[in-house]
User: What shape does this take?
Amino acid sequence: MIHRENYLKQPTAGAVSWNSYGEYRGILGQLTINPSVSTTTYNFSLTADTGAVVYNKKGIKGVYVDDSKIPLYGIYTMAIANSSESNYSFTTTLIWDDDYR
Assistant: This one.
């Protein structure tokens, strides 16, 4: 089954972090980050509940889409850092498939 979660967050002083709504189990199919200002630069990371950083991308500008296949299991912390526009929101979408046999 395909799952999709959207998060709308606004950085304070250029940074914001949040936890997933629940456990992710499966394969990440797509990660999309859409800042409300298209010229915004920022960093994004995804950290497992074990403390392992499983995704880390620096120097992103504008909308970012990644179709990497990353195995997921557990609760994750997502973080946007070093945002050039701290008063504008970001929409982050994760799509994953829990039927990964």
The first strand starts at residue 2 and ends at 9. The chain has a mean pLDDT of 94. The chain has one domain: 2-97. The CA atoms of residues 33 and 98 lie 21 Å apart.
